[in-house]
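**Backbone geometry record:**
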Amino acid sequence: MLSQLLMEVDEEGNPRAYYVYGLGLIGREDASGRYVHYHYDRRGSTVRLTDEAGNVTDRYRYGAYGELLEHEGSTEQPFRYNGRDGVMTDPNGLYYMRARYYNPEIKRFVNRDIVAGNLAEG
């Protein structure tokens, strides 16, 4: 599991949202007190957000390599593809995986792996 974002702040440092974790990300509360629960597919990608009454507020659909094909709803939040495990979507559309950025449109990481080596090395 990657490190965990606990709070988002705006440009002035005011809290924008708080995140709740269990075995992965389970919820988000925004500054107005609106709480949503995260629902994931088998990969750990966010497929739905629901409110406290269980109503679906947002739906997400992805391609085979993580490209966002569809988002229905208005919740702005960074945990989409593999979001349960801490992968965050940057405003530029790249997925931040703590060590590297992944571009789902070209289906490639955009920088080198930080671990040097080759397949012959165990």
Summary: Residues 113 and 120 are 16 Å apart (CA to CA).
